[in-house]
Amino acid sequence: MSRPYEAFWPARLPKTLDYPAVPLFRLLEVAADFYPNKTAINYYGRAISYRDLWLGAQNLAGALARRGLAKGDRVALYMQNSPHYVIAFYGVMRANAVVVPANPMLTEEELTFLLKDSGATGVITTTDLWPRAEKAGSRAGVRFALVGSYADYLPAEPALPVPEFVLAGPAAPSGDEGWFTALKENNPPPPVEVDYQDLCLLPYTSGSTGIPKGCMHTHQTVMANLLSSYYWLTMTPSSVHLSVLPLFHVTGLIHSMLAPLYAGATLVLLTRWDRRAAVEAIEKFRCTHWVNITTMAVDFLNAPDIASRDLSSLVAVGGGGAPLPEAVGRRLEELTGLKYVEGYGLTETISQTHFNPPDRPKLQCIGIPDFGVDARIVDTDTFKELPPNEPGELVIDGPEVFKGYWNLPEETAAAFIELEGKRFFRTGDVCYMDEEGYFHIVDRTKRMINAAGFKVWPAEVENHLYRHPAVKEACVVGVPDPVRVEEVRAYVVLREEYRGKVRPEDIIAWARGQMAAYKYPRQVVFVEDLPKTGTGKIAWREIQQQARAEAERSG
Question: Which sequence spans correspond to the domains of the chain?
Answer without folding.
Answer: 4-427, 448-554
